[in-house]
Amino acid sequence: MRKWILDDQLIKKAFGRRAQGVRSITSQHSGEAGVSLIGVIFWLLILVFVIAFVVKVMPSYYDYWSLKNIVNQQAQQSGPEESASQIRHNLNSRLGVAMINIPQKDIQIEKGGTGPALITVSYDKIVPLIANISLLLHFEAVGH
């Protein structure tokens, strides 16, 4: 046999009187629950700041990941007969194709005899965030 739980207010409307021994399934909570307008605005502002931060910082990391791949490839393809200036020229050509601008003072190339060259690119990137607030990112890519 099934037990039915009926709504006390529904029975009162239908029959004009309260049902005896029937539990109400409506909430007895008289206060309202939920997020206020100020709460919604607060969380929207937080979301906007996070999205703006990601949009401003991600291009720098994308350039860094591309730079790491280029430096690794250049270091592996450099032969023992290549000079440091030839390696630097080839690396700058690849960086130009990828549209990555790195100052020459931040690129160090070390030749180690018969093995591949050790290429280290260490640079800082300043990302302006809001007004006079900036973020300093330090990147270092090593290829050998």
Short description:
The chain has 144 residues and is of the alpha+beta class. It is built from three helices and three strands.
Strand arrangement, largest sheet?
Answer: 1-2-3
| Gyration radius, rounded | 33 Å
Could you report the average pLDDT, rounded to the nearest whole number? 84
Shape: elongated
Q: What is the CA-CA span between the terminal residues?
A: 78 Å
> What's the count of strands?
3
Low-confidence stretches: none
- The helicity comes to 40-55%
Number of helices: 3
Q: What structural category do the secondary elements indicate?
A: alpha+beta
Largest sheet: 3 strands, antiparallel
Strand content: 15-25%
Order of helices and strands: HHHEEE
Account of the 3D structure:
With 144 residues, this protein is α+β, with helices and mostly antiparallel strands. The protein has a domain at 59-143. The protein is built from three helices and three strands. It has a three-stranded antiparallel β-sheet with strand order 1-2-3. β1 and β2 form a beta hairpin. The termini are far apart. The model has no long low-confidence stretch (mean pLDDT 84).
